[in-house]
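Quick check before the chapter quiz. The format below is the same one you will see on the exam, so make sure you can read both the input and the output lines.
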Amino acid sequence: MCDVTPRAEVALPADLSAARRARGFLRGSLCRVHQEAALEPALLLLSELVVNAVRHGAPPVRAAVECRVEVLRLEAGDGSPARPRLRRSPVEAESGRGVELVDVLSRRWGVRADVTGKTVWCDVAA
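Here is the expected output.
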């Protein structure tokens, strides 16, 4: 797939406008191959990761994308060390499905601690 597009990262505001900015960043950062193969699920997944970073994390909030051979790696980081938890929300719940969506729609996902807090990542099939 893509082995020439460099990793891209952007600082985001610690408010809900971050999701819109992250989507614009993603559209502008993807190679042509990933634009065609993975754009729609990637936009949804990065939005969920960023909204969770804003709502449940702490500044600074950031997003990153890396084109890999068979997957698109999406990341959202924030200043809190608190790790997200996968919960199954009741059908009638109006929120609380962000991590569940990431779990279902991504190839795999995880969390790593870093110097500013944590980074939650997921891989989208390309």
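If your answer matched, good. The chain has three helices and five strands.
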